[in-house]
């Protein structure tokens, strides 16, 4: 998709419920592209991820890849789902993941991070 959108300026990912009836996630595994898409190198300015779960390793890999390779990124927003009171252990894991993303070496020095809960 990114290779077919060389002038893409805003990338918005929305985590829709991709679970089967048995609770197993369906879909494809993340495979890092061999070449960085042109839109990341030259045009993407805004990256938004709504409903990020912070549970899957590939979610972190995707976010890290975009941050490391997007030279003109001005704003990266990660909007997470709220954590129920019974699952507060997830809060510490989420905080560590946010800290890791905030410390990723980024291609754009002017990128402003926004972390919010929906």
UniProtKB/TrEMBL annotation:
Signal peptide segment: none
Domain FBD positions: 38-116
InterPro entries referenced in this protein's UniProt entry, alphabetically: FBD (IPR006566), FBL13/AtMIF1-like (IPR050232)
SMART domains noted in UniProt: FBD
Superkingdom assignment: Eukaryota
One Pfam family this sequence matches: FBD
Protein name in UniProt: F-box/FBD/LRR-repeat protein At3g49040
Primary gene name: LOC109125858
